[in-house]
Amino acid sequence: MTVYAGQGDAHRSLALLWGAPEEPRTGRSGPKPGLSVDAIVSAGIAVADAEGMAALSMRAVGERLGRTAMALYTYVPGKAELLDLMHDRVLAELGTGPAPVPAPVPTTATATAPAGDWREAVTAWAEDLYACYLRHPWVLQVSQARPVLGPAELAAMEALLRALRPADLPPSRLRGAVAALWQFVRGLAATTADARGAAAATGVTDEDWWATRSARLAELAPDFAERYPLLVTLQGTGGGAPEDSHREAFRTGLAVLLDGIAAGRAPKA
Asked: Which fold is adopted by the domain 3-91?
């Protein structure tokens, strides 16, 4: 299920994202006191976290708040605008957890950063984003084809650019590095999130799924090791719980990407 951001009214969505919402209507027909945009966004995130994107609706959010869906429309125009706000709120968590947003790079001509600092900063950013996606896996269903353009989304991009700044990449390399890093983190997080939810969605554990298919594959392809020797060798070096395998893939894959970025740095004069 892919959901596209930015489908709501552009004027009202951006006003809400950037902290300039329209004042709610007052009067006897208005909403009960105590409701706010922040409360609605928090409730929307809670619904999506607990039940997934498919369960998200203005009615479901209203029920969580003890209100009708109609009461929410005074504050948020509709589900499309709510989704944009939820997406940006989740990304606002970046830099508040164990992996902090890297500190600003000095801008004076004489100030320089140690060569290894950018790798550490990018790793911290990637770890933070990966953890955020796994806390809120529904975010992975929001297409990146059209950005939300909220302050937190833009701040996340700014933080990555700041972390990469000491690497001194040419502009074309920098754009490629940013795209590769973001998509790498998103892709690995999606795989991990899917693996976590597979058993609940299908009613079959990972162990049972693999056991059934491995036994059948051995019957159908007794020469499997001869046909796919490199694959068998690679599989033999793994092991452990799926979650551990995903973490290892994340760490090693990120290291490979950072090695590639380092190789593309501008030569020193």
From this structure: Arc Repressor Mutant, subunit A (1.10.10)
What are the residue ranges spanned by the domains of the chain? 3-91, 117-263
- SS3 for 83? helix
How many residues in the chain? 269
Closest among 128, 62, 53, 126 to 86, alpha carbons compared: 53
Q: What is the mean pLDDT of each run of 10 residues along the chain (269 residues)?
A: 91 92 52 80 98 96 96 95 97 69 34 64 97 97 94 96 95 95 97 91 91 93 94 78 83 96 76
Exposed e or buried b per residue across 41-77, where buried means at least 16 C-beta atoms within 10 angstroms of its C-beta: bbbbbebbeeeebeebebebbbebbebeeebbebbbb
Contacts of 194 (CB under 8 A, 6+ apart): none
What is the rounded distance in angstroms from the CA atom of residue 125 to the CA atom of residue 123? 5
What's the predicted TM-score (pTM) here?
0.84
